[in-house]
Design a protein that fits this description.
Layout lengths: L2 E3 L6 E3 L2 E3 L9 H14 L3 E3 L8 H9 L8 E6 L14 H15 L4 E6 L8 H13 L3 E7 L3 H14 L6 E3 L13 H8 L2 E2 L24 H4 L1 H6 L3 H17 L3 H10 L8 E2 L4 H8 L8 H8 L12 H6 L1
Parallel strand pairs: 3-4, 3-10, 4-5, 5-6, 6-7, 7-8, 8-9
Antiparallel strand pairs: 1-2
Amino acid sequence: MQLRTLGRTGVQVSSLCFGTMSFGATADEAESARLFARCLDAGINFFDTANNYGRGLSESILGALMEGHRDELVIASKGFGSMSDDPNDGGLSRRNLTRAVEASLKRLRTDRLDLYYVHHFDALTAVDDVVRTLDQLVQRGLVLYPAVSNWAAWQIEKALGVSAREHLARFEVVQPMYSLAKRQVEVEILPMAQAETLAVVPFSPLGGGLLTGKYGGGRRPGSGRLVENAMYARRYAGERYLQIAEAVTHYARGQGVHPATLAVAWVGSHPGVTAPIIGARDVAQLEPSLAAADFEMSPQMRAELTALTPPVPPATDRSEEAAEA
């Protein structure tokens, strides 16, 4: 497993990050332990969770598993989602973020979070206050590096401006959605991250299972995230996604490679990407994604895979500039 530098932090992380959303959900405690052990065996030192994955259950399971390994690992969690029916238990207010970090630390059985993502944008809380709250958490030693997920480029740049103006801890990592089926991040997020030396740790490189070879043409499994989860079903609704899945599967078959391996390796091969987040419900499902760490994606292969999907729009309406690029 190769190591990559996390933005400008100097921290070395594995070229794949393991996301623990399945812990306590599709993977029980025993299977979660097997997944964790397989990741360690493969050389992964980078694990991602969130407070609202199973309303704390994912963090609790990960916290128990990483005992004895904590100092070898880079641990990321997130805050935003509601953990109860309390109207103030959610969002990015100083009140909620402070309480959320303290609760995550207890569940994870650790004294600090290496990364802490604000999970979504909060239109009710001023960006300035979010940045100051994260800086205070850094000053307390509870968070080492602030990070951001699911924000637009302009929102991230606004926060970076506040950090620079007020000499506060800034976002060091961005976690966007990125896959062959979802390439919007190429328009502004990835160029911004490269310009600002932000690490990029994308989620859903397999499109929620779309790019694993199970979908496309007349193939639709009877179970799986895209079938059972309404959010994912909406996210990948439409014939064009099945066409992309079919094209990727056909290409992978021609290369003699599992489509999941190609899909993850494609995301990881972008020069602005630090480490794609992979996940699984069991070890067997994990293996093709793990194989992406050792797969060499040539520039030609990346271009051929990219050509299987619709081109992303330019950042402005001057479409002739995209043609010249």
